[in-house]
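This part of the workshop introduces the protein records we will be handling. A record pairs a protein's sequence with a compact description of its fold. As an example, a complete record with its sequence and its structure tokens follows.

_____
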Amino acid sequence: MSNLKPKAESRSYEAEGPDGGWGWVLVAALFVSTSLVFGLMRSLGIFFVEFMQYFDESAQAISWISSIGLASQQFFSPLGAALCNAYETRMVVMTGGFLAGLGFILASQATCLVHLYLSMGAISGMGWGLVFTPMVATVMANFTRRRALALGLGFSSIGISSFAFNPLFQLLVEKYAWRGAILILGGLSLNIVPCGALIRPQRRPKAPKADSESRPSCSSLLHRVSSYLELSLLFERPYMTYTLGVTLLNVGYFVPYFHLVAHSRQTGFSEYQAAFVMSAAGASDILGRVFSGWFSDLGHFRLIHLLSLWTTLAGVFIMLLPVSTLSGSYSALMVVSLLYGFCSGTLTSVIFAVIPMIVGVERVMGALGLLQLIESSAGLLGTPLSGFLKDVTGNYITSFLVAGGFLILATLTFATLPHYFSCTDPPPPQRRSHQDNKEKDLHSELEQMNSLCTA
């Protein structure tokens, strides 16, 4: 009971809401769906070398496959959020699961890189975008005091799947070649569909109804779309500052998952040794996510401060990954990989748990969608930049050093948030007065756009 006191001091502004029940079933659904989104995405490095050999292309060209998938997932997240606000979350997630599986099934028949860009990249990425944000927002809406723990448990599947998928995918490639392995991944991805079916239909607040007599139809449509997407958040400095920090973090965060296997093989380690490095990072990632969720909910430290700590440590360990292989020591590489996996796991659940404290729980769905959209540019450019640096230098050392530097830069960006150096969380912006003014400013811009539509 003593642990409740610091939480009450730091989060007193947040109304007590649901804290479990059917929410734990949704945590299980999030557990499975995230393993088939980001867990699978992290393990695609196994196919990196296979694609380079089969298509005889550069590392930069192959890197665009994973980057388009990641960027598509983030780019289409606002669409997923808007569809959930307008229709049923259950159907949106189930449709996303179908598209995710379809993309991999089509990729198994690819004859050139463009086919992989469109199938594994665009189609599966769009499916992931319709799955991830709605699932996370649904879980967050069902928890208050245990929100970080619920997210940590749901996201722990990413580490578990990273641990299991890497050697599994390597085995599938050896037995069925890369085409057969990717076809099997398509079948696995279809399991997201029943995860979406577990979401109970909920009545969401409807967008403000337009006055058909005084407002033209074009303005009514634009106003409704902006309400579903929560575009007014783009006028709020705390949200945009936080989004910029997460975007910078996203540039370097996924680089090890796409290029560490190739770097390990280039250093001289065997295929299974290289795959096991990522499995080890995935194992420590599991521990990091659960520990972060438990420790964050104790309320001893502000979540933004914990996020800064884990982000900095993750960036340092990314920089140390290539350094650890200079001596040819596999043990040194394993130790640094374990530390990196732990820190990368701890920061993930905290990233999403901070958002309700900045925008409020009622706007989480739209805030997550816009965040994913804005950071999609980082996901699109991160791994190709790493591949370009490898092509220029001949190795991945510079790639990892630059990737880790982006995480350090993200921490410095977080430090510019209002009240960052305060020991307690500030109250979120007032929904009525402050937010309504922003919506009025946005609505005036929509009226100007309407004049263009009716002209």
Notes: Residues 100 and 124 are 4 Å apart (CA to CA). The chain has a mean pLDDT of 80.
